[in-house]
Amino acid sequence: MTDDEVQESGYEVTLPTFHGPLDLLLHLIKQNEIDIYDIPIVPITEQYTAYLDAMEELDLEIAADYIYMAALLIHIKSQMLLPRDESAEGQPEDPRADLVNRLLEYQRFKQVAETFAELDVVRMGVWPRPAVSLPESEAAEIDMSEVSLFDLIDAFRNALTRYKVNHPQAIELQRMLHKISDKMGELYNKLKEKSPIRLQWFLEGRDRDELIAIFLGTLELVRLGGISLQQSDPFGDILVAITANPLDEAQFAVYDQR
Amino acid sequence: MNELRAALEAILFVSNEPVTVDALVEALDSDSESIAAQLADLKRFLDENVGGFTLEQTAGGWRLATRPEHEAILKKYFAKKGEGRLSIAALETLAIVAYRQPVTAPEVSDIRSVNSTGVLRTLLERRLIRVAGRKEVVGSPFLYRTTREFLIHFGLNDIRDLPRLEEFGDLIGESISEELVTAVQSVAVDHSE
Amino acid sequence: MNELRAALEAILFVSNEPVTVDALVEALDSDSESIAAQLADLKRFLDENVGGFTLEQTAGGWRLATRPEHEAILKKYFAKKGEGRLSIAALETLAIVAYRQPVTAPEVSDIRSVNSTGVLRTLLERRLIRVAGRKEVVGSPFLYRTTREFLIHFGLNDIRDLPRLEEFGDLIGESISEELVTAVQSVAVDHSE
Question: d(Cα C161, Cα B134) in Å, to the nearest integer?
């Protein structure tokens, strides 16, 4: 739940906003003047869930991260109720330890962020000299030491986008070469002349993409009930025959719309 | 007038990026002591006599730049909207990348306890962080690092100039339960591995 | 220090184009006499105290500029600086080699719709790509691959760690259009034959 998200949602928010479940927990700890190393887990869990309820009432979408933390708190609460195994060696592990550790770590980064925020304000006002193009180099240049993978793939994407813009015809043609509707029409017309035929004969000399178009077209013709397939033994010849149910060839075109 | 000094001023004037002492030594056929002395002297001179810009040390080099107090007037003159301040979420994320780099998106999200993918994207777009390879774990997530732009933006000379994270103390929790402190420390060791 | 003068210096400092007195009058909420006086005074000050640049009046207005006598030294400095730079065209070519390797010069030129032989040579000189045999087609053109230096530069352990196009979409928060992926595939098909 960042500032941005809350602003985007457009609701009048009267609750303070937090930048995540840990931020909310830190707020509750501070507000209750609690020792972070000895968090009373029952009241904190209650306050935490009460806050989530309040958010719900305000129609704020509660992010999964907040709900996950609520579950974690309840889990810790149940762990605290279990009798500790005093016979175990060394220090008994406090169920809160991991959470406290995370809170402390997050709190440090929160403070760093506050320092960064102050610097951000000051430094936004510091402007450099305008960039000048290097003499004797017309083309735009970039400093290689600052080029990252992001720039590399961006350059690749730009090249491909431009390629596509420059070659719309070629790509279109390649796709258009083997329309399913054409193949359906071709096979259907062939069958009107002569039926049945061997499918293998019809497929001879076709390239891979064309075979796919024919295969899909054949299935569609079977589905429409215009043709039937027959194979008398496994791996044997497939015979294609026209049925008594005439098809309107104009309807074939819809199979190219996908 | 000092010829070395004038040439050095000319180079700094045409550069919009920080210029290293090494680059100046080479271009001006001088030595690093003389260059360093001239830079210090120029900075003093500008601070005493010129109100509109100064010489600053950042990202391992030196550059001329305006002073923060003229932000409003420059924005007005150049009718520039500017990028706007960084959000708290962006600053938190940036803090984590700065101290934990190289770091992955899941690691950042874990520390913040909030999904941080969108914020990382914003920082990438502003070139404050960059993708620097992949981590060799399941899913090979990208590793992020801060950029030179980050150093320049915050006026840092080197990433090592950041105060140690431990110096950011605990604001809350005066009385300490010793048992828990020990437990936390043992967990902390686990996490650092 | 004079506030009007400082603001005027800041504007001149950040400007690429000559700045007119009228524009300064408006931005600084002043009058042309005061501005003219400040400009004349600044010019005198720079000429007396700063060797590296001056304030000059050109057709369009006023601008800060280096002095003619530093042309040679600036050229030398920029030539050196240029060595660490790559043109945008070269980066694009490098990206195509990285993603399509092994690839020939005609194939790269075809994707870019520009003859790319010269750019490939630059990349070879910079040791970012290398020759890796010849393609068994008419003319036996050289095949190019990226080098170890390339991997090191981008922090990769293996060329297979390059981000995929769809991942890039995730990074910039935009779905890479299906059409583009089709285009990519058709380029791949054309050249794999």
Answer: 7
